[in-house]
Amino acid sequence: MDKVDLLSLNPDELEQVLSELGEPKFRAKQLFGWLHKGVAPEEMRNLPAGLRTRIAENFLTNPVRILEEKVSKLDGTRKFLYALEDGNLIEGVLMRYHYGNTLCLSTQVGCRMGCRFCASTLEGCVRNLTAGEMLGQILCANRKLAEEGERVGNVVLMGSGEPLDNYDNVVRFLRLLHHPDGVCIGMRSVSLSTCGLVPQMLAFAEENLPVTLSLSLHAPDDEIRRSLMPVANRYSMDEVLCACRNYVKKTGRRVIFEYALIHGVNSLPEHARALAGKLRNLQCHVNLIPLNDVPERGLKGVSEKEIDRFRQALEEAGISVTRRREMGDDIDGACGQLRRHYLKQSGENRVTGEEQA
Questions:
Q1: d(C-alpha 357, C-alpha 346), whole Å
Q2: Which SS3 state, helix, strand or coil, does residue 298 take?
Q3: With respect to CATH, is domain 64-356 assigned 3.20.20.70?
Q4: Of the residues 23, 85, 91, 258, which is catalytic?
């Protein structure tokens, strides 16, 4: 992208940009507010007409747009296929709960972690997203919700990509997200999912960004975890859980363990009991996820009876556990599916110029 992405900049950085254009410092706060409302330059009413024109011609104000939207007939979940300025595609999922709207957003185009149960990683990682591209996903959703007098109130970084593999941009995004003159979503309304990059987990605990940390665990021991997640060859479960304990100590927030139940792999009651032993005395909660089948990897989901047996075994061991509510099953709700279907149908690796226009 040749143009500067203004949405990735904080107020001090915007002040410098505007100063180079010969504009007074106070314009930075005005511009920052408009950018985080997701409006086009021509709508920035308290900026001079000449400045609005220069911004429109020389800068990016939102590097993301919605290319396609699917709405679930089952529960109202919305799946967005976003187009980026360079033609790459990412996804987001807007989920409606009684306590508000939650947007699951992406942090990378694809993913290089290689987890066998995830469709997002099948083509690898194309590139990292900027902070502005992450914010842009929220702003696009907010524009949709504004028609109903609503907005995004909660954010989960659980879409395509490994957030901590894009560490600097994700930290910048979180600070912008929390800024009082911007979208202003509190850190306790944010969840960040990681497959377990231990050095980055330790560093993130020092950032004073007390988001809910969700750890993709998916196994009760190293052997099973290595068969599902290449990252387990770099960091053992003991190392990952030690980093989780450190996060709890530093932030006071409990850790959520994501556990995708896979038939014939990790879903037996004895697996649950082994898992409970690993999590003993750790402030945590286990979120059971019935697997969406991944035919490319030969992985299948589990029956309701298997889910109940696994959950019961954890509860009997004193572990807090719930089953994740399945949403958007009729609209390719699982991460990466909509993007892959679109690319397969178009025969392209990204949006063509004609589709972008």
A1: 16
A2: coil
A3: yes
A4: 91
